[in-house]
Amino acid sequence: MNRYAIVLAAGKGTRMKSLREDVSKVSFPILGKPLVKYVVDALKPLGLEELITIVGFGGETTKKIVENDSKVVWQKEQKGTGHAVMQAAPLLENKDGLTIICCGDTPLLKAKTLEALLSSHETNGNALTILTAVVDDPHGYGRIVKEGNRVTRIVEQKDCTKEQDLIKEINSGVYVFDNRELFKDLKKLTPNNAQGEYYLTDVIAMFVEDGLKVSTFALSKIEETMGINDRYQLGKAAKMMQHRLNKRYMLAGVSIEDETCTYIAPDTTIGQDTVIKPGTHIYGNSKIGKGCVIGPNAYLENVVLEDGAVVGPNEVIKK
Question: Does 230 have pLDDT greater than 80?
Answer without folding.
Answer: yes
